[in-house]
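Lab manual, section 2.4: Encoding a predicted structure.

Procedure: take the sequence of the chain (482 residues), apply the prediction step described in section 2.3, and record the output as structure tokens. A sample record is shown.
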Amino acid sequence: MSETLERGALAADPFVRLDATAQAELVRGREVNPVELVEAAIARIEAVNGPLNAVTHKLYDQARARAAQPAGDSAFAGVPFLIKDLLPVAGAPNTSSCRGLKDNIGQVDPPYVQAFYAAGLIPVGLTNTPEFGLIDATEPALYGATHNPWDLSRSPAGSSGGSGAAVAAGLTAMAHASDGGGSIRLPACNNGVFGVKPSRGRNRASGFPEMPYDLPNVAVDHVLTRSVRDSARMLTLTEDPETPLERLPFVERPLGRKLKIAFIRDGTNGLPPSAEVDAAVQATARLCESLGHVVEPAAWPFSGDAVMAAFLDEWTVLAAGAVAQTTAVTGCTASPENFEPWTLALAERGAALTPERLAQAVATLREATVALTRFFETYDAVLSPVLRHPPKKLGDHATDQPFQNLWDKAVDNVAYTPVFNASGMPAMSVPLGWTADGLPVGSHFATRLGGEALLFGLAYQLEAAQPWADKWPPHSAPMLAR
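Recorded output:
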């Protein structure tokens, strides 16, 4: 497609600025049909994705077939959607960006994917992710790097970097993401979109195996969006009907009460954020105060170094399990031809951990969870940075560099989010800040287990006070249509 035709297709697109809720309302009102929405999304992907490399697999034929069926009246009936290539989808590639799985095809839709279809969503493609989602950048050897639409030389973060870049660039209004240590919140931060990590136990099963050795299950699934209401509605639609948590209603309006918010500026490693990140999050603290909330300086209620060390032990166990499962299923060897150096080194560490070391990690993470639970008896929420640094240059976290270099940089950058995976508590990144160079900086909020309604209510307040939906990056469908 020529540049002139691409721009013409983008300029004629009446749907790109609409969130998923608004698109579905058009379908239910019979003002448009799903075929129109799907064809517009396909045109955007074809015109915009090339330099981004956010979408790695196109599911156009399946999407067109699904769009041709009666739309129904589901909440997101007929809305185009993207799925991160860590989640199995029957009949679609399921590689986890691993060369050892490059020919793998999903066999069964897990209950979580079934909920997408029940909601009326139409997958049009799969998004890029680092190998097994194991690093805070999206530059897999199998597919190459995803570029940040705010600055193509920058990282969209990981592991849901493809989904974050896609939503920021307007390819679809909403995209699936998952989070085992920050992987929804980090791309939300770096791409200027909204991302909530739900509580452990909130959602239907997505096929991710239980953690061994009594380690806490850290990975959860949800979506990245441009609007709060899309995220809030989607979480009610994917909720496990047998969740042990209090059932979550659709949160559709701002909070009606004032909060007591703990403001933690330093990471769990004891280091302060970079100057621009610090300035952005301090501005968020002032915004919260202007909304009537009480914001108090606070500190982590546990030993940050001990908790991060325990979480990293769990992370290496995750890597060891991923490599072992892949070799068992495919028959491939655990070699550099099939796995990236970072993955192999993590897996080697995880496989070497002693039972005593793992028992200590379990105990440390449980103690931190108890401490946080007590902390939230005093505070309604905590505010912190999402990442210590603004979006980094592509290649800075490449997985083929010396292991200790990457380990140190990743641990340094991701100093705020993993403890909420270990504790199972919900958290979100809200796109409220910007660097002098125009790069997005998210603000991180977290609360007690099962407290997503509080986060959504606060997010609606912030969205109304400081709207972000009309901020589009230079490499996005609306900007390229000009």
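Check your result against the sample. The radius of gyration is 21 Å.
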